[in-house]
Prior knowledge:
Blueprint: E1 6-7, E2 12-13, E3 18-19, E4 24-25, E5 30-31, E6 36-37, E7 42-43, E8 48-49, E9 54-55, E10 60-61, E11 66-67, E12 71-73, E13 78-79, E14 84-85, E15 104-106, E16 111-112, E17 117-118, E18 123-124, E19 129-130, E20 135-136, E21 144-147, E22 152-157, E23 163-164, E24 172-176, E25 182-187, E26 190-196
Parallel strand pairs: 1-4, 2-5, 3-6, 4-7, 5-8, 6-9, 7-10, 8-11, 9-12, 10-13, 12-15, 13-16, 14-17, 15-18, 16-19, 17-20, 19-21
Antiparallel strand pairs: 21-22, 22-23, 24-25, 25-26
Amino acid sequence: MNDDYFVHESSYVDEPCEIGAGTRIWHFSHVMKDCVIGSDCNIGQNVVISPGCMVGNNVKIQNNVSVYAGVTLEDDVFCGPSMVFTNVINPRSHVSRKDEFRDTRVQRGATIGANATIVCGTTLGRYSFVGAGAVVTRDVPDYAMVYGNPARIKGWSCNCGCNLPLSVDEDREQATCDACGRVYERNGTQVSCMEVKG
Length: 198
């Protein structure tokens, strides 16, 4: 075993794989061949990462998550316990659709809450926040906070994870995060971080 990362003795890592320094893979997990996992990741108990998946740096994948083929997790992504990715839009047990997998991308800094479901073919924007139990059926914009079934935009979230005092229906506005001082501008469903005060 490579001394740069940790794999619990109950877990399997198929070859070839690339795993970055400082990554920890805990009990009863399986990393399949041709995966690339970045540095300083934490892969919880009973996690499966399917062949060819890309996982960035400092990603946290909590217990009981399956990262299926076609899923990409960028840096600083958080996957809550027992959240679900899908990779086929119309599965049938008796019909093979392995050539119909739809790609799902979770962009930098996004958080997915416990027991949420991410339907394949969607993109979760940078620093977006998916609430626990949500069912995501469409793309989520950067910084958007979504929850419900189907998930809808209910607010906006800062880089630091705190709620932003931005509306969901005004045309254009600015707001400052009370926790960290970052300034944001919203134009429709497009939110961008302008600066850090102080």
